[in-house]
Design brief:
This protein is mostly helical. It is 76% helix and 0% strand. The protein has 4 helices and no strands. It has helices at 2-21, 27-55, 62-84, 89-99. α2 (27-55) packs antiparallel against α3. It starts with a helix and ends in a 10-residue tail after the last helix.
Length: 109
């Protein structure tokens, strides 16, 4: 029974992982993804903070909301940048092929 469940889920999981790993993104697409990954949640949480303050009867200044936005976006940028901007596995393999000779030893220059 366990083997049936494992074989049913493994191809889906491995195909998703393979598709994500083998995606050929350019540098600009990675920066766009990084901007979306840091700006969108920051804007969401600023809206939530503004709504909570409104419901509590407090008025937040635009500077406070802006500071909250910049803080959240900078934090997410610092966390997401190493993950999103790292080399794709195919780029790593290409770099290894050029750095090594046909027998796997370092190439002479």
């Amino acid at each position: 029974m366990l083997d049936v469940m494992r074989t049913a889920s493994t191809p889906v999981i491995s195909s998703i992982g393979t598709a994500v790993r083998e995606a050929q993104w350019g540098r600009s697409a990675r920066f766009a993804g990084l901007a979306i990954a840091s700006i969108t949640p920051a804007a969401f949480w600023c809206i939530v903070a503004e709504l909570v303050a409104y419901w509590a009867g407090i008025s937040l200044s635009p500077i406070a909301v802006g500071a909250l936005f910049v803080t959240i976006a900078a934090f997410l940028f610092a966390i997401c940048a190493p993950l999103i901007l790292r080399n794709a596995p195919s780029e790593d393999r290409a770099a290894q092929r050029t750095a090594r000779g046909p027998n796997g030893h370092p190439a002479r220059q």
